[in-house]
Amino acid sequence: MTNASSWLSAVDGYCERTGPEYWAEPVNALSNLAFVLAAAVVWPRLRGRPMGQALAAALAVIGVGSWLFHTHANRLTGLMDVLPILAFILLYVHAATRDYFGARPWVAGAVTAGFLPYAALTVPIFAQIPGLGSSAAYAPVPVLIAGYAVLLRRRAPGTARGLAIGAGLLVLSLTFRSLDMPVCGALPLGTHFLWHLLNALMLGWMITVWRRHMDGQGG
Predict the structure, then answer these.
(1) Tens-place pLDDT, residues 146-179
(2) Which of 46, 99, 134, 207 is deepest in the core (most CB within 10 A)?
(3) Per residue in 126-135, pLDDT tens?
(4) How far, CA to CA in Å, does 180 sit from each of 10, 86, 134, 141, 186?
(5) Count of alpha carbons within 13 Å of 157, Cβ hemisphere only?
């Protein structure tokens, strides 16, 4: 019983939240609609591409999970917030390894599985960066995207440029995520909603980069 209640106990990790009420983070909650909108925008061009549709579905679910966390703010909904993000990352790593490099499925699967130890090893390093805070958990991702961009710069320069743009967008969105609490005194609304908006844009863009590559536009 104690464990169940601890999962449902209220948490307060964002500047905008002023209490445990459902609408204590209205802007953080409503800005999650950007994920659903981004998924709806990319979906029509993904017909016949199951991986692309899986990525778009994961993008929409990210918005739902984050909505739940910023309304019912507790440890359980916090898990619902991060798991769809992890699912998107793993799907994209698999798709990128298989489709950008022509890797066999088992190689793409091994690289995808390797993301977890990679993150486990690098997150503590990023956590040492002053001001990064909990955003350190996401910091390995733009580094990985940039690494793929470097490796693809000759094989598929268009795709490489798209990935570089995606990495830059993610760094910008992580900056606003990290600034949320430090600027809270001056900006009571915080900056976390900008993480949502920019992250939705970035994830939709990453799906578009993949789709263009599959359409033969990555050269």
Answers:
(1) 999 999 999 999 999 999 999 999 999 999 999 9
(2) 207
(3) 999 999 999 9
(4) 19, 22, 11, 20, 11
(5) 1
Domain range list for the chain: 26-214
Contacts with 208 (C-beta within 8 Å, 6 or more apart), sequence order: 42, 162
Q: Where do we find the tokens 């599985």?
A: 113
Bridge partners (DSSP) listed for residue 32: none
Are 171 and 164 in contact, with CB atoms under 8 Å apart? no
SS3 for 74?
strand
CB atoms within 10 A of CB 201: 19
| Residue 195 near residue 137, CB atoms below 8 Å | no
- Residue 132 carries which DSSP code? T
Asked if residue 4 has pLDDT above 70, the reply is: no
Is the CB of residue 31 less than 8 Å from the CB of residue 70? Answer: no
